[in-house]
Amino acid sequence: MKDPSLRRSVTLFRAFLRERQEPERCYALLARDAADQVERYGSVDGKVVVDVGGGAGYFTEEFRRRGAQAFLFEPDLRELGARGEKPPEGAVVADGYLLPVATGAADVTFSSNVLEHVADPQTFLSELVRITRPGGLIYVAFTNWLSPWGGHEWAPWHYLGAERARARHERRTGTPAKHQLGVNLFAHHIGPTLRQVRARDDVTVVSARSRYWPFLAETVAKVPGVREFTTWNLLLILRRCP
Ligand SMILES: C[S@@+](CC[C@H](N)C(=O)[O-])C[C@H]1O[C@@H](n2cnc3c(N)ncnc32)[C@H](O)[C@@H]1O
Q1: What residues have CB less than 8 Å from 136, skipping those under 6 apart?
Q2: Which of 41, 110, 171, 184 is least buried, going by the fewest C-beta atoms within 10 A?
């Protein structure tokens, strides 16, 4: 599937709608898609790829399939074991704020849908930058708060307030919501994130675009205000400065 293309976006969206019923299919597809996005900037074959907050390891496995030496770092044991089988070999329980990885060790540092789950995105990003070698690539994608999916399992009701949306979800499903604003989900916005990343002198922004949009992917991420609602998920491709 070509990125971006309408066919790709529709396929991803359909898989996402069936995420609960068919998680394997959904995440395997997403992992292939993300790896394709990384490989637009060069093959990962033989490269060191560090997957931070990689959950059950779908992305790590996809990078390994493509010949990378991929390493999974994930702080939550429940996420690591979410597939009910062993996580990828060598998986490390570690927090993205403080990775047990040498400075400059990674050719590619990869983080998919983690930034909205950390309270301090700049410190998290600094750690990703630290472990990336000069000239290396950093892939960071996250769902911003005002995205239609910003409230995760209680979306789109987060537009009416996080607590109300969460309570509604619990009433409707009879189960506790996985996410709580300010605890494991944070209201990060595109504008401030882009300004902070552009102000850094240790990375250059190669691309800032919607991760899933089939067209105008860079344009939708450019229009202040509007982009907070239309981008869905911001993909940042950064290059570590020499
Ligand atoms: C929505 S899941 C994303 C999993 C996978 N990367 C993906 O795209 O499907 C968010 C992940 O971020 C992890 N996470 C939360 N806080 C983190 C932190 N401080 N450092 C690293 N990972 C973190 C969670 O444990 C969880 O596995």
Answers
A1: 104, 106, 107, 108, 109, 239, 240
A2: 171
